[in-house]
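thought: user wants a sequence for this fold. calling inverse folding tool.
action: design(structure=
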């Protein structure tokens, strides 16, 4: 059974930082990109960023470029999302995701359960 389990969400002030973690189990994700989506009430889930297995290829949404960074620890089957210079509009439930071409499909093959990130102004 494939599982993606997120951790690290919480409340932070604008301008602050948070790091989300996602531990994957149940299979090896070497053939998949791993990354993150986010969703706010009443809106569709949107792509945030993704990284290839090697980390040599990454994609980010324009809204987070230069502020968010995705990294992977393949030995631990874990992906991270480092979020800096957070803004109130970054407030959302963040979902770990695995799949290919997620930045084009705006979809993933596997999802985590989500973790809340709240940025106060």
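)
observation: tool returned 121 residues.
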């Amino acid at each position: 059974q494939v599982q993606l389990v997120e951790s690290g969400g919480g409340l932070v002030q604008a301008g602050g930082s948070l790091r989300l973690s996602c531990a994957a189990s149940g299979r090896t994700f070497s053939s998949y990109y791993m990354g993150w989506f986010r969703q706010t009430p009443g809106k569709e889930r949107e792509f945030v960023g993704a990284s290839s297995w090697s980390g040599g290829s990454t994609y980010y949404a324009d809204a987070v470029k230069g502020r968010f960074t995705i990294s992977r620890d393949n030995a631990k089957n874990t992906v991270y999302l480092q979020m800096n210079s957070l803004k109130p509009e970054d407030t959302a439930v963040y979902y770990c995701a695995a799949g290919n071409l997620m930045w084009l499909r705006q979809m993933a093959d596997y999802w985590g359960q989500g973790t809340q990130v709240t940025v106060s102004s």
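thought: summarizing for user.
answer: Here is the designed sequence. The first strand starts at residue 3 and ends at 7.
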